[in-house]
TrEMBL record:
The keyword Signal applies. Residues 42-119 form the Glycosyl hydrolase family 36 N-terminal domain. The keyword Signal applies. Residues 1-22 form the signal peptide. This is Alpha-galactosidase. Keywords: Signal. Gene3D superfamilies: alpha-galactosidase from lactobacil brevis (2.70.98.60). It comes from the Bacteria.
Length: 120
């Protein structure tokens, strides 16, 4: 296999892997949308909040643009005010959350989305 074919194959595998690992979560009201990047084992990140997005708009949002933690934790590179602080039994206040899973349930007219997080 020549260099060009190997390079194209590698890029294809990386794109496929990235799209399989990334999971975007969209929570919408009639006028607004909140989009979060929630890859299992990764950090919950804020992608978008604003006017309601169409399905086409949602397809074009890239997790690569996510550089803001949805819940900044105390103790680990939090350039903004933290959303959550915990004091462990040993007095340590460092917290690093990772996404366990995302579940969505329909209850009557409402849809409930739960993003489960845990400390690494």
């Amino acid at each position: 296999m020549n260099f060009k074919k190997r390079t194209n194959f590698l890029f294809g595998v990386l794109l496929l892997t990235g799209s399989l690992l990334a999971q975007n979560v969209c929570v919408s009201t009639p006028k607004t949308s909140l989009v979060l990047s929630a890859p299992e084992g990764g950090t919950l990140r804020h992608l978008y909040y604003g006017n309601r997005l169409s399905e086409a708009d949602l397809q074009n949002i890239s997790a690569a643009e996510a550089n803001h933690a949805a819940y900044p934790e105390y103790g680990l590179n939090a350039p903004v005010e933290t959303a959550l602080a915990v004091k462990h039994a040993d007095g340590n206040m460092t917290l690093q959350l990772e996404v366990l899973n995302v579940t969505t349930e329909k209850e009557g007219n409402a849809v409930t989305t739960v993003v489960a997080l845990k400390d690494k």
